[in-house]
Amino acid sequence: MYPQLLTYLMELIKYQDQVIRTLLTLLIGKGMFEKPEETPVNKPYRKLQVDDLPIIETLQKLDYKVLLAEYLEKNRKELKPVQRRNGKANVPKSINCPRCGAPSDYLYANNGGKGQFQCKVCSCLFNDKSRYSKEAILKCPHCSKTLEKVKERKDFDVFKCKNNDCPYYQKKLNGMSSKEKSQFKKDPQAFKLRYIFRQFRIDFQPLSKSSPKKPKVDLARLYVSPHTLGLILTYHVNYGLSARKTAALMKDVHGVSISHQSILNYENAVALILKPYVDYYPYELSDQFCGDETYIRVNGRWHYLFFFFDAVKKIILSYPVSPNRDTATAIRAIDDVLMKFKEIPEDLSFVVDGNPIYLLAQHFFAQHGFHFDITQVIGLTNEDPVSKEHRPLKQVIERLNRTFKGNYRSTHGFGSEEGSVSFVTLFVAYFNFLRPHAALEGKVPVLNPELLQLPNMPARWSKLIGLAQDWIIEQQSA
């Protein structure tokens, strides 16, 4: 009787599930019978060729008041403002000379009010839309001709060398086959023959350290003891158990009744305390650094975790999470590494994959006066000498990704951005300060005597949290 009833109920549930999926398909317009993808889609990099940096010539800034005084002393008369005849060719009051700062009274409307102006004080010729570019001139590194701005994108402006005699252009043009030349005449946009530079306008200031924020949760008021909190973090972070399994283990083994949501709340609270300590700790670094991205799931969507790693010291230096694999996140990731240097080395170099966003990030930092090299290891096989030489560093960062995935897999993704950042922060704190590493002869990457002398992992977690709290108090009182 009962087996037949169970069979009937199972068939009824399956039928109801099909009816629900059919209705959802009709309402949403998307098939509800396909199983969701459990593996991330392998999206290839957008084809983008990044050229070398341009020649940047900075113009000497002048003061129009000094120039007017020199004119008076030399000519024994004042330099009068521009005389406007019949009110024509007026210059807006908001415009001044980008080189000497002369006001609009000293500016000529040089081409009949079409946007080009000339300063009567210093003779600077400029356009209204590009007057700020007069502070620095961008020139082609191959022919030294001034670059022209051809496009404006969301985060950057595109400059191009339009000199037909440029060696870069001539080499590309002469290297084309007859078939390519024929196609080039029909569709010139399909080929990149000229030198191109992208000048970024991203609202981001490199090496701008933010003061540590006071945690929203006071761990001293939690209902669990420091030892219990250390046990929870050990099971959840060190051994990669999910929050539900950790809660079950605490109940079945230790007799501590706690919900999985409370464990996630503790995770977020501890991450807020540890993040500034992990980010601004005075690490002793080597001279070999590598970076890569890996996938994590947040709110049912694939996000990107950017790791930058000291390959010798085995220290994670950067770990931003982003919904996009873009240049802005690559800039943030590299900036986190640069902040950890007391003085940026002259021979600093990063080994990364073939993603062009890292070359664009290199150009962004160069525009702000920070210089380093980017070495790209492309593909899975050593098809060029550079990839063959630097392949071991790329493999190091791939092993780090696999280690993280071993801890992350049990979470089945995160329900929020905050949850993903909290888990990654705790993993980095564990990896840098608590996890013995085989390549370091069983030692942890950051040797802290106050942690090493403790007998077990829960005690080390509690001590690490205490060190982070003391550091935050010290920074806020400084």
Integer-rounded radius of gyration: 30 Å
Class from helix and strand fractions = alpha+beta
How can the largest sheet be summarized?
Answer: 6 strands, mixed
Beta-strand portion reads 5-15%
Number of helical regions = 13
How much helicity do the residues have?
Answer: 25-40%
The N- and C-terminal alpha carbons lie at a distance of 76 Å
- List the uncertain runs: none
Structure summary, number of beta strands: 14
Overall mean pLDDT stands at: 83
Instruction: Label the overall shape.
Output: extended
What letter string, H or E per element, gives the SSE order?
HEHEEEEEEHHEHHHEEEEHEHEHHHH
What does this molecule look like?
By secondary structure, the chain is of the alpha+beta class. The chain is built from 13 helices and 14 strands. Strands 9, 10, 11, 12, 13 and 14 form a 6-stranded mixed β-sheet that branches. A 3-stranded antiparallel β-sheet has the order 2-3-4, with no helix packed on it. The protein has a 3-stranded antiparallel β-sheet with strand order 6-7-8. Strand 10 and strand 11 form a beta hairpin. It is extended and about 100 Å long.
